[in-house]
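Quick one, probably user error.
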């Protein structure tokens, strides 16, 4: 959403008329970048985020990091919708002549509300990305503390706190715009356009709140935090890859998840670099008019909110399998009648903190199946030897052999708690 409060939302043209004409080159560029690419990418991004939310909400995916990613997908979905309403649809009319009613009547009336909402979700998206990196930093670099810090309840609190902070920080933007009306003689209709309010034109407000606070809280602090946290994660991942043969399965999954989230942060850096540069330029050189770069930066921010689903599919084996089970033809991928909820295995879980209860339950199930197989084989041997089968007693099911149970439970529990926290 980059510089919408500086150049995209409030036009730098004369405020006297709503009917100012842009040059044809800029009209064509806005039509291609906003009217076509932003709308297409945004619609695909919304679909991808909805699929991500459905998959990450499955019972076998329940953990703190997944709750944060669900929150990020929700925020990104709202961010894409606001981008389409503020930039995508308005970019169609000036070049094509389509959507006249939206451009001159609907858009001016919804923009004063959609614009603050866009800034709220943009702020929340930035700080949720930072929180995801912080969670991974604790899980990878301080696994002993992850048990108490990386919990499902804390993740819910983090998401709520970020949304409240984002709403409070952007509250003044509700009073930044007004609606101007004008008679359009060619169409014989009254048209409207958003214009800055007296608050938005106040020099002190612009210098402190719009320029400096925006630069500090939406770029410098989050970028610095992301750089430090992900540098530490990357160093730990490189160290773990050198010792990969000695890693446990759970440690390998944690490193794989950290690698995937490094890609998410890398895309965030790339897509938000141009908005950062434009904001710095606008702070020191507000007279510079760069509509082409501003429209490009808005497209990049929309792309950043739309591509996480692709990253999850590429790097998440369990995510990809659940996607195929839930949304693709089972026979096409050879999955048979396997249910989506039954697709979770202990060996290839994706986006999991390795919760103690889930791992212990899966370990018990595996031992139970092994015990049943042993008893069945023993019964077959008895049939062959004795010629008849003795009726089995209706006693309780024993999940572990008596001599091995306590030792194996202790090993499984110790391995889990030394690496990450519970669900």
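Nope, works fine. Designed sequence:
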């Amino acid at each position: 959403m980059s510089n919408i409060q500086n150049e995209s939302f409030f036009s730098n043209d004369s405020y006297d008329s709503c009917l100012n004409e842009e040059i044809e080159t800029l009209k064509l560029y806005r039509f291609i970048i906003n009217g076509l690419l932003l709308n297409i990418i945004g619609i695909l991004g919304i679909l991808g985020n909805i699929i991500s939310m459905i998959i990450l909400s499955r019972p076998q995916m329940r953990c703190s990091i997944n709750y944060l990613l669900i929150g990020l997908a929700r925020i990104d979905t709202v961010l894409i919708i606001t981008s389409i309403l503020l930039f995508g649809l308005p970019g169609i009319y000036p070049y094509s002549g389509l959507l006249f009613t939206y451009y001159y009547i609907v858009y001016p009336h919804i923009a004063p509300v959609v614009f603050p909402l866009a800034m709220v979700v943009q702020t929340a998206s930035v700080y949720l990305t930072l929180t995801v990196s912080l969670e991974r930093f604790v899980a990878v670099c301080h696994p002993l503390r992850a048990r108490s810090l990386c919990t499902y309840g804390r993740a819910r609190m983090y998401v709520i706190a970020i949304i409240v902070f984002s709403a409070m920080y952007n509250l003044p933007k509700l009073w930044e715009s007004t609606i101007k009306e004008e008679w359009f003689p060619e169409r014989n209709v009254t048209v409207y356009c958003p214009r800055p309010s007296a608050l938005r034109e106040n020099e002190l407000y612009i210098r402190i709140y719009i320029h400096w606070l925006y630069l500090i809280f939406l770029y410098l602090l989050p970028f610095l935090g992301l750089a430090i946290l992900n540098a530490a994660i990357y160093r730990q991942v490189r160290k773990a890859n050198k010792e990969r043969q000695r890693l446990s399965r759970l440690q390998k999954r944690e490193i794989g998840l950290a690698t995937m989230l490094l890609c998410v942060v890398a895309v965030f850096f790339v897509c938000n670099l141009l908005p950062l540069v434009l904001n710095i330029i606008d702070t020191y050189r507000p007279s510079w008019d760069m509509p082409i770069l501003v429209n490009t930066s808005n497209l990049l921010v929309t792309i950043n909110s739309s591509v996480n689903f692709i990253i999850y599919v590429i790097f998440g084996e369990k995510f990809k399998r659940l996607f195929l089970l839930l949304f693709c033809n089972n026979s096409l991928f050879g999955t048979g009648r396997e249910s989506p909820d039954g697709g979770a295995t202990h060996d290839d879980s994706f986006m999991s903190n390795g919760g103690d209860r889930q791992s212990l339950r899966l370990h018990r199930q595996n031992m139970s199946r092994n015990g049943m197989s042993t008893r069945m084989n023993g019964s077959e041997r008895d049939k062959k030897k004795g010629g008849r089968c003795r009726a089995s007693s209706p006693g309780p099911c024993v999940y572990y052999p008596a001599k091995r149970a306590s030792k194996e439970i202790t090993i499984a529990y110790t391995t889990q708690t030394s690496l990450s926290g519970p669900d």
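Residues 1-7, 331-363, 372-376, 379-423 have pLDDT under 50 and may be disordered.
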